[in-house]
Design goal:
By secondary structure, the protein is mainly alpha-helical. The protein has one domain (3-75). It has five helices and no strands. It has helices at 3-15, 21-33, 35-50, 55-65, 67-75. α3 (35-50) crosses α4 (55-65). The longest helix is centred in the middle third of the chain and has 16 residues, at 35-50. The two termini are 20 Å apart.
Length: 76
């Protein structure tokens, strides 16, 4: 396990306390496959939140926009 993977796992454990371990591991695996995609998603969510949207609405809108890329990533 690389240092970056270790940090990502620790951060996920901290931020996703109520999420089962298997789901946390699945999310961290997806993030390590294409970190740039998730960086772009996070930045776009933040931009929409600053524009006045709620976090939930901003997240849903951005996830819909990147739905095909996420689906392809999950199939890898």
């Amino acid at each position: 396990m690389s240092f970056q993977s270790f940090l990502l796992n620790q951060y996920a454990k901290l931020k996703m306390k109520g999420v089962p371990k298997e789901q946390r591991e699945q999310m961290t695996a997806l993030i390590t496959k294409d970190p740039q995609l998730f960086k772009k998603i996070g930045e776009e969510i933040e931009k929409r939140k600053k524009g006045g949207k709620s976090e939930m609405k901003a997240s849903m809108d951005v996830m819909k926009k990147y739905r095909t890329e996420l689906a392809m990533l999950m199939q890898k």
